[in-house]
UniProtKB/TrEMBL annotation, chain A:
Name of the protein described by the UniProt record: Rhamnose ABC transporter membrane protein
Keywords, comma-separated and alphabetical: Cell membrane, Membrane, Transmembrane, Transmembrane helix
GO cellular component: plasma membrane
UniProt xrefs under InterPro entries: ABC_transp_permease
UniProtKB/TrEMBL annotation, chain B:
Membrane topology note: Multi-pass membrane protein
GO function terms (MF aspect): transmembrane transporter activity
One Gene Ontology term, aspect cellular component: plasma membrane
Keyword terms, alphabetized: Cell inner membrane, Cell membrane, Membrane, Transmembrane, Transmembrane helix, Transport
Name assigned to this protein: Autoinducer 2 import system permease protein LsrD
Superkingdom of origin: Bacteria
Alphabetized PANTHER family for the sequence: ABC TRANSPORTER PERMEASE PROTEIN YPHD-RELATED-RELATED, AUTOINDUCER 2 IMPORT SYSTEM PERMEASE PROTEIN LSRD
Automatic annotation (TrEMBL), chain C:
Species in which this protein is naturally found: Jannaschia helgolandensis
Location in or out of the cell: Cell membrane
This protein's name: Rhamnose ABC transporter ATP-binding protein
Superkingdom, taxonomy of origin: Bacteria
Annotated keywords: ATP-binding, Cell membrane, Membrane, Nucleotide-binding, Repeat, Sugar transport, Translocase, Transport
Main location (coarse class): membrane
GO molecular function: ATP binding; ATP hydrolysis activity
Keyword set includes Nucleotide-binding: yes
Taxonomic lineage: Bacteria, Pseudomonadati, Pseudomonadota, Alphaproteobacteria, Rhodobacterales
Length: 327, 338, 506
């Protein structure tokens, strides 16, 4: 019973991250200095935010492959708004980014909910549509640092209590999700819909609507990240965050979110993202070519999924009574 | 023809073999709808650009889809069986890298082809082991191997590229069989026919449909489900290896970023071809027509100087549109009736 | 009943149509406070549809539902809950990944002032409810750790967590043991005493006569009669149910002594069964009786190669056969008609003829290539032999009724010309008419020399059809009975383990 209280998967993953940090520290002690760790966290913040959005979608038995394209389109849009209206205050920019992202998420959600098109098909399609739309609105041109206002690019890097705003955005998202998943009817519905959609109907939960909301949440977070990303790197172009959707899914899988829905946790998604972030930042430090990163994250996905499946494998029904002496 | 059985047991209930004629069904099928779309695009294109109806241009246009379609045929079977392989483009990268590496050690054209196909097969087997023997979900496994396979290419190549393929190797991706007909077209036709026969005319194909509709039921019916799926992953890997041979031959060089994003185009082609992404139904003729539709759209828009990225909007809309429109239509019809 | 006065819930002229089927045609149903109303009817009579309408899952096409005389619209499950209607469904509709308390309260958890779920209050309230029904587990337990009977208690607690005036119980005892059923009856009495109206759906007549106060009979989606249980007897109720008097007679059989076909020795599985051994002869029907969950299906699936025994030998016609997969079993002449038709039997999405020929493709094809004419010939032969009712052989098997799907599954296996056919609950969920046909057919098969193993939980069926019966309990063979020992009491006593000295098989 007691072992149930400690989430086993998360503990193992956290252990793996600590071992990884120890290994890196043995070669280069500076890596585990608090300032550097804060840097790694800041660098991983977008992945954490998107992984939490993706987690909600995957929990409801869907998948959102359009997050990176959503991020890029939102990022380009707010960058262009900033160029056109440099005086627009940052809170308005953020509100626009979140709203725009949410609208794109809602498009995915509506297609899944109202037309029952499989999510993988929907988001495959909207992924290319969103990406193409960036080209249409920008004419393929870049928005560069010197065109953006100082307030626009400065916000995510502004330090607050020693951490950049970007990191605080990730922390806030983690906290909100912690409360939302555990303590709100929507959070519990998301688990219920993914765990047993049939039963959810009987419990008065609208499966399609819950999936729709999951897509809206994922989209809104992608929108928020879109602004943070473009402002942080101070550049917007068609291909930003290309292929990032797979890294986001990878973070979820490594974090133990079951692709079949219903199983997963906020802690898992965050740790999965941090694992990938640590790997990415550690490679150059220990003198391994960054070209290894892709293969390592691929292997991590395979190991994680194999491990989680083994842990959750259904055993045979227990019919024999242990008290009956074998003949 | 069953009159004799009727007379033999007069009280037996006679159940006809078929209700609708085959012609009637064909007319109402997804494939016919898609064919109409293809013809419409063809007509629009020939009006939109004076260069469209040039046979050499049309011949060039086939390169837009032949390599992808080769993988799509194998992928169609895989998706019908209820699995998916998102690592196909990465298999191309790894197979192409292996070929490039072999060139550095002086491999000739026959060796290159064997190496390309063998690497494809091995990658397919790797996926198959995880999915069929370890019982893991294929979407996650192949997202993993998608990173892993391409990752290995990056480790080997980094920022570099392999060049210096032998001149005779160019035949696959740049050669012509006769007049405007390319070598790739020939292989496209052969592979389409082979997969068409495999899916629609053999016991193996029937097993694929049975597994896609109800894997448990298929297993309870004595079908070796995991074996069939294993073979399907092998075939998908093999076809990715073949596509790697053609693509590498056509480009004449290998970079680790080769064929990036092609897995999504292949899946789009399969779904556009009427294959149910959830498994159980679909046809090879459908995928063939979808290949032409995608090729024609890309080519036609290209002639109008529309950039590739904007074409992808069109492909994305097509993918969602062809699935959404019939559903919207039924919904509207139901509402009117209700 | 003059005292109870007016009904709490009253359904009037309710109609519900699905594509091609009229599930309910102008039915009526009244539920009175403090009384148990049994809804009686064959499968397909419209009972489940009625439950789904009352709980807001389906919307009726016509008619009115009144609560305390006022017409209401039960559009969603939440509307039904708000109107005080709650249900314990046939299947467990719960969530494995959530805790017991969350399962009880999902959809209507108590909230704090901030609008968040009040966990402390939720666990307190859940503990109170579980206490009331005597559940032996905590509210923090994840549901996946509970057994079927305990899950049922969670479902009951969930039903009671709504301030319900009407409790619907849809075949609540189907998966429960004797003791658990007794506890359920006590609970029903408690609910009655609290003045709740109870709708009780069951196929078991002893149960209906024991706890129901009133009855309502549906047949083929139409209302037949209602009244008080005290005014009616079992025969009359059956007559109303099926529209004719049914005196089910099992086909007469002459047990013959013939050569041995199958011998199983010492089959063991780590958790599901142990030490299973028996012999089966040509033309014999061997019954397997036991309580639900006694390990019968698990053993059969192992014999068929779905799961692997850890130990044990299987001999066909005296030769040892290693069966590692269903394909091996079919190749050796053993076939299995599973209990779960929709998932394990028919392949919904494929046409009838392809279902029938699936395991026989080796015979109908040439060099691995399909020959449709041969397939249709084979499919036609067996579908006619089984008197299949279908529009055409290329129709999707999913469009057939349960009984006809079962015929397709049996046809599929007969077409492989097996030596041993295992039928797992062959008549479960089939109407009385089809049942007799299946029994008739089983007898015919045995007479033709096929060896039949029949797993069944219905005592009349087991006794009526079997030459010999093996009773299983807790994964082991408890007894092997034949001749005069084949009596209902003996079966029940061995199955429940209440026979005087524990029978120790060698």
């Amino acid at each position: 019973m007691v072992s149930r209280l400690i989430p086993v998967r998360e503990a193992i993953l956290a252990g793996a991250i600590l071992v990884l940090l120890a290994l890196v520290a043995s070669r280069f002690a500076g890596f585990v200095a608090p300032a550097n760790l804060a840097n790694v966290f800041n660098d991983t913040a977008p992945l954490i935010i998107l992984a939490l959005g993706q987690m909600v979608v995957i929990l409801t038995r869907c998948i959102d492959l359009s997050v990176a394209a959503n991020l890029a389109l939102t990022g380009m849009t707010v960058a262009m708004i900033n160029v056109a209206m440099p005086g627009l205050p940052i809170p308005v920019i953020i509100a626009v980014a979140i709203a725009l992202g949410a609208v794109m998420g809602a498009i995915n959600g509506l297609l899944v909910w109202k037309l029952s098109i499989p999510p993988i098909v929907v988001t495959l399609g909207t992924m290319t549509i969103f990406r193409g739309t960036i080209f249409l609105i920008s004419d393929g041109k870049w928005v560069n640092a010197h065109e953006m206002s100082a307030a626009f690019t400065g916000f995510p890097r502004a330090a607050f209590l020693g951490l950049p705003v970007l990191s605080w955005a990730a922390i806030a998202t983690i906290l909100v999700f912690g409360v939302m998943m555990a303590r709100t009817p929507l959070g519990r519905s998301i688990f219920a819909v993914g765990g047993n959609p049939h039963a959810a109907v009987y419990a008065g939960i609208d499966v399609g609507r819950t999936q729709f909301l999951a897509f809206v949440i994922s989209g809104a977070l992608a929108g928020l990240t879109g602004y943070l990303w473009v402002a942080r790197y101070a550049v917007a172009y068609v291909d930003i965050a290309g292929g990032f959707e797979l890294e986001v899914v990878a973070a979820c899988v490594i974090g133990g979110i079951s692709i079949a829905g219903g199983i997963g946790s906020v802690g898992g998604a965050v740790l999965g993202a941090i694992f990938l972030g640590v790997v990415k930042n550690a490679l150059p430090v220990v003198d391994i070519s960054p070209f290894w990163q892709l293969a390592i994250s691929g292997s991590a996905i395979l190991i994680a999924v194999a491990f989680n499946a083994r842990a959750g494998k259904a055993r045979g029904r227990i019919i024999l009574k242990s008290t009956v002496a074998p003949t | 023809m069953s009159d004799s059985t009727l007379q033999a047991r007069p009280e037996t209930r006679h159940v006809p073999d078929r209700l609708n004629s085959r012609a009637f069904r064909t007319l109402r099928s997804w494939e016919s709808l898609l064919l109409a779309v293809a013809i419409a695009i063809f007509i629009v294109n020939s009006f939109a650009s004076p260069y469209f109806l040039n046979v050499w241009n049309l011949s060039d246009a086939t390169f837009n889809f032949t390599e992808k379609a080769m993988i799509a045929f194998a992928m169609a079977l895989l998706i019908i069986s209820g699995e998916i392989d998102l690592s196909v483009a990465s298999i191309i990268a790894l197979a192409s890298t292996a070929m490039g590496l072999a060139v550095q050690y002086g491999a000739g054209t026959p060796e290159l082809v064997v190496i390309g196909l063998a690497v494809g097969l091995l990658c397919g087997a790797f996926n198959a082991v995880f999915v069929t023997i370890m019982g893991l979900p294929s979407i996650v496994v192949t997202i993993g191997t998608m990173s892993l396979f391409r990752g290995i290419s990056y480790i080997i190549l980094g920022d570099d590229a392999f060049r210096g393929y032998p001149a005779s190797f160019a035949w696959f991706g740049q050669g012509y069989i006769y007049w405007v007909f390319t070598v790739e077209m020939l292989f496209f036709v052969i592979i389409a026919l082979a997969f068409g026969v495999l899916l629609h005319k053999t016991n193996f194909g029937r097993a694929v449909y049975a597994i896609g509709n109800n894997p448990t039921g298929a297993m309870f019916s004595g079908i070796r489900v995991q074996k069939v799926k294993f073979i399907l992953f092998l075939l998908t890997g093999l076809m990715s290896g073949a596509a790697a041979v053609f693509l590498t031959s056509r480009l004449g060089s290998t970079r680790p970023s080769i064929a990036t994003g092609m897995e999504l185009e292949v899946v789009t082609m399969v779904v556009l071809g009427g294959v149910n992404i959830l498994g159980g139904s679909g046809s090879i003729p459908g995928v063939v027509i979808a290949a032409f539709v995608m090729g024609l759209v890309t080519f036609g828009l290209g002639l109008l100087n529309v950039p590739g990225i904007v074409m992808s909007i069109f492909i994305g809309l097509l993918l969602i549109g062809v699935i959404a429109l019939p559903r919207l239509w039924t919904m509207a019809a139901n509402r009117r009736r209700g | 009943m003059t005292e109870s006065g007016s009904p709490v819930v009253s359904m009037d002229a309710i109609t519900k149509t699905f594509p091609g089927v009229k599930a309910l045609d102008q039915v009526r149903l009244d539920l009175y406070p403090g009384q148990v109303t049994a809804l009686v009817g064959e499968n397909g009579a419209g009972k489940s549809t009625t439950v789904k309408i009352l709980t807001g899952i389906y919307r009726p096409d016509g008619g009115t539902i009144r609560i305390d005389g006022n017409p209401v619209d039960l559009t969603t499950p939440n509307d039904a809950a708000a109107s005080g209607i709650t249900a314990i469904h046939q299947e467990t509709v719960l969530f494995d990944e959530l805790s017991v308390a969350e399962n009880v309260f999902i959809g209507h958890a108590p909230r704090t002032r901030l609008g968040l779920i009040d966990r402390a209050e939720m666990h307190r309230a859940a503990a109170r409810l579980l206490d009331e029904i005597g559940a032996p587990f905590g509210t923090h337990t994840p549901l996946r750790e509970l057994g079927i009977a305990n899950k049922h208690l969670v479902a009951i607690a969930r039903a009671l967590s709504v301030d319900a005036r009407v409790v619907i119980m849809d075949e609540p005892t189907a998966a429960l043991s004797h003791k658990e059923i007794e506890e359920l009856y006590e609970l029903v009495e408690t609910l009655k005493a609290q003045g709740k109206a109870i709708l009780f759906i069951s196929h078991k007549f002893d149960e209906i006569f024991r706890i129901a106060d009133r009855y309502t009979v549906f047949r083929d989606g139409a209302f037949v009669a209602d009244g008080e249980i005290a005014d009616i007897d079992e025969n009359a109720l059956v007559k109303m149910m099926v529209g004719r008097a049914v005196d089910h007679i099992f086909p007469a059989r002459r047990p013959t002594v013939a050569e041995e076909v199958l011998q199983v020795v010492g089959y063991d599985h780590p958790t599901e069964f142990a030490d299973i051994g028996f012999r089966l002869h040509r033309g014999e029907i061997l019954g397997f009786y036991g309580l639900v969950g006694a390990g019968r299906s698990e053993f059969m699936q192992s014999l068929f190669g779905i799961t692997r025994p850890s130990k044990g030998v299987c001999k066909m016609n005296g030769k040892i056969r290693v069966i590692r997969s269903p394909a091996d079993a079919v190749a050796n002449g053993i076939v299995y008609v599973p209990e779960d038709r929709g998932k394990q039997g028919a392949i919904i999405g494929l046409p009838i003829f392809q279902n029938i020929t699936l395991p026989s493709l080796g015979r109908t094809s040439r060099n691995g290539f399909l020959q449709l004419a041969e397939e249709f010939k084979l499919a036609r032969e067996y579908s006619e032999r089984l008197d299949l009712r279908a529009a055409s052989l290329d129709q999707d098997v999913g469009n057939l009724s349960g009984g006809n799907q079962q015929k397709v599954v049996i046809a599929k296996w007969l077409a492989t010309q097996p030596q041993v056919i295992i039928l797992d609950e062959p008549t479960k969920g089939i109407d009385i008419g089809s049942k007799a046909a299946v029994h008739e057919f089983m007898a015919e098969l045995a007479a033709q020399g096929l060896s039949v193993i029949m797993v069944s939980s219905e005592i009349p069926e087991v006794i009526g059809m079997s030459d010999r019966v093996i009773v299983m309990r807790d994964g082991r063979i408890a007894a092997e009975l034949s001749g005069d020992d084949l009596r209902p009491e003996t079966l029940v006593r061995h199955a429940a383990g209440i026979s005087t000295p524990a029978p120790q098989e060698a």
